[in-house]
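Could you help me review a protein record that somebody else here produced? Here is the record exactly as it was handed to me:
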Amino acid sequence: MTTQSIDFLSQLNPSQRRPNAQNNMTKTPPPPNRPDRFELSVRFVCGAILGIVIAISAGLLWEAQSLAGVLIGGLIFALIFGFLTARYGDKFWKFLADLFHSGWW
């Protein structure tokens, strides 16, 4: 660049200058930390496993009359616990831990 072009650019007011990264920066807050697909799938699988374990334990504890009932209950519990853990993550696990430590059972 020559000195003439530099002088020309310095004479422009800021609204006439070409925007660059510095001018386009906005002060918006960063997006919240959202889990990626891998973390969501791990959360869901762990919650589903817990749901299956709880359903089988309840079936054995209350002497279920049929295996089909235990399997359907396991599927329902797996879906519910899987979705809750995928959605709430550590908050859901803390809720369960507090629930079990409170002595409600």
Remarks:
- The mean pLDDT is 81.
- The helical segments are 3-11, 37-61, 67-88, 90-101.
- The two ends are 79 Å apart (CA to CA).
